[in-house]
Amino acid sequence: MGLKKYKWHKIAGEAADIQWTKGDVAEVQVNGKTLCLGRFNEEWYGFALLCPHAGAPLTMGYIDGACHVVCPVHSLKFNLKTGRDTNDEGYKLKTYPVEVRADGVYVGFEEGGLFKWL
Ligand code: FES
Questions:
Q1: Full DSSP string of 73-88
Q2: Which parts of the sequence belong to the Rieske domain (predicted)?
C-alpha cells in the first residue's frame, strides 16, 4: 500500500486564530466548506462536520480522554485518528490530517480521493 498524498489547505494564519469550544472542538472553513478540528494531547485532528450516524453537528460534541470525538446526540464515539466508531457499528467519520506550521494551520485532503470539491 503506497503512502497517501495530500493537498494542503491553509485554514488559519496561526494556531491562536482557532476558536475552540469547551469540548476542544473547533469549526473551520475550507474553500467554503465547514469542517471540524479536535485537539487531544497537543495533537490536532480534522474531521467532518456532521456525524455519520444521523447527521448531528459534531461542533456540539467534545473530545474525550481517549482521542475520540463524542457525538452530542446519541453519544457514539469516533476515533480521531481512524474515524472508526468505538462500538464497531460500522459508522466511519471522515478524517483529515492537520499540521500546525510556522506560517499557519493546514488541513490535508487526500489527492485523487472521492472528495473532489476542494
Ligand atoms: S447522530 Fe451522532 S451518534 Fe447519532
A1: TT--EEETTT-BBTT-
A2: 8-107
Count of the separate structural domains present in the chain:
1
What's the domain range around 67?
6-110
118 assigned to some structural domain: no
Nearest-CA residue for atom 1 of ligand 1 = 54
Question: pTM for this one?
Answer: 0.92
Place of cell 472542538: 25
Q: What are the pocket residues of ligand 1 if the criterion is a CB atom closer than 6 Å to any ligand atom?
A: 51, 53-54, 56, 71, 73-74, 76
Domain membership flag for residue 1: no
| pLDDT one-digit tens code per residue, 59-94 | 999 999 999 999 999 999 999 999 999 999 999 999
